[in-house]
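Dear colleagues,

As part of the handover before I leave the project, I'm documenting each prediction I ran so the next person doesn't have to rerun anything. This entry is a single chain, and its sequence is reproduced below.
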Amino acid sequence: MDTLESAESAPAPTPASLPRASLGKQLAINVFWFANNLHWQAILAIIFPAVIATQLAFQDKGLNLAIATAPGILVAFFLNPFVGALSDYARFKMGRRRPFMIIGTVFNVLVLVGFGLLAYFADGATLTPTTVLLGLVVLFVLLEASNNFANAPWSAIIADEIPADQRGSASGFYGLLTLLGTVAGFLIAGSLVQTQQNGANTQPINSADFRTHVLIAYLVIAAMQALLVILTVVSVKEKPLTQPRPLIWREFFSRFKLEARKYPDFTWVLLTRLLMMTGIWSVYFFLQYYMQDVLGITGNGHGASAFGLTVTSPQLAQTVFLVVVMLTAAVTVYFAGALSDRWGRKSLVYISGAMMTIVCMIFIFFQTLGGSLIAAAFFGLGYGAYTSVDWALATDVLPPTDE
C-alpha cells in the first residue's frame, strides 16, 4: 500500500470533469457528519459541563471547563490543517480520505470508552478531583486528536467528488445531517445525563446513577460513531489519487502560508468564519451554566416555565433550547444551500449573520426561559442557512489547486 510516494499514472479528475452526483451520493458522503455532530454536541453541550459541575468543585465549574477543553482545542487548531493537507498526498487504493477516517475513528471510540470509565469511577474515593481533572484534560486532547484525524480529511470530500454547480446542494445535505446529528446528540445525552441539586447554590449530587448514566451515554455515542463510519466507508466509492505527487516536506509546510493578497476571497472567508465561530462557541460552551446560574434552573423544585413547557434541570432546559435551534435551523439549512447555487452565497451569509446577532441582544435584555427560547428560534434560522451556505462559499473560493 503506497501512501505518499509518486507514481506514473493518469491525472485525477478536475472539478470541471466530475460526473453529476446523484442525491444518494450527496447523502452518502455526508452521513459521517451526522455521527460527528451527534458525538460533539452530546459531549460539549450536555455531558462535559454536567460532569465538571458534578464531579469537580461546583463554584469553579466555568474555570474547570476551560482548563479541561483548552489544550485539546489547541491541538485541533494545528492538527486539522496538517492532517487535511497530508491526506492530499495519500495514495491509498481506497482513496485519500477514508483511511484517515477509519484510523481516527478506532482511536476515537477507545477514548470515548475511557471517558465513560473515568466518570464511572470518579466517586470521590476511587479518584480524587485532581485526578479527574487531569484525566479529563488528557482524554480531551486525545479525543480532539483522534476525531480531527478522521474528520479533517473528510472535509474535502465535497470538493473531491462533487462538481462545482452541485456543491450548494451537497453542502445543504451537509448542513441538514449536521443539524440532525446535533439534535440526536442533545436528545440522547439530555435524556441520560441530568444533574440534581439539593438547593439553588449547592454542589450537584455525584450519585451512582449519575455516573452510570454518563458511562452509558459515552458508550452509545461510541457505538453510533463506529456504525455510521462503517456505513460511510462502505457506501462511498472514493476515487484514489492517481496524479504523481512526491511529498517534499519543505514545500508541504510552505503551503500553510496564507497568501492574503493572492487569494483575498479565501482569506476573507476564513476571517469571517473565525469571528462567527468565536461568537457562537464563547456562548455555547457555557449555555448549561447560563440556564443554571442566570435563569436559576437547578432541579429539585427550582425549574422554569414558558409557552406551556416546564423544565426542571439545566440539562433539560439546554436540550429544549437546542432542539428549538435545530428545528428552526431545519427550515433554512437545506434550501439555503440549494438557493445559493442560483442566487449567490454572500447575500445569504449576510442575512444569516444578522439573524444570529439578534440573539445576543435577547440574552442581555430578556433573561427568562421564554426569552431564551425566542433567542433559540432566531439563532436556528440564521445558523441553518449559515452552516450550508458558508461551507459552499468556502469550497468556491479555495485556491485554484487540487489540494
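The chain is about 70% helix and 0% strand. Residues 172 and 334 are 4 Å apart (CA to CA).

All the best with the project,
I.
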